[in-house]
Design a protein that fits this description.
The chain is α+β, with helices and mostly antiparallel strands and 97 residues long. The protein has one domain. It contains three helices and five strands. The strands form two sheets. A three-stranded antiparallel β-sheet has the order 1-2-3. A two-stranded antiparallel sheet has the order 4-5. A hairpin with a 2-residue loop joins β4 and β5. α1 packs across α2. The longest helix has 25 residues. The radius of gyration is 15 Å and the shape is globular.
Amino acid sequence: MGMTAIDDILAQMERSPENIRFSEACAVAEEFFGPPRIVGSHYIYKVMWPGDPRINLQKFGKNAKPYQIKQLLKAVARARSMTQSLEENSGHKSRKN
């Protein structure tokens, strides 16, 4: 799944966290955090930091649980922020003259 599709799902998550399919939530989580460790009904994703926000997804019918979608959004925002900081500090971003 490309970043455009992931960005579309993220926008939908912001608008309506209670209407996100479990498969869509997993696609977003895998894009940012890699494959999950599955323990029973819990899909647990490894984050790049200790503590919260952690990512633990569970099915709620066909959808993911809304509070877990909100946690995923926080984790994605943190991951993007960390990636941006790393790029800026390592000089990978193009500089304007």
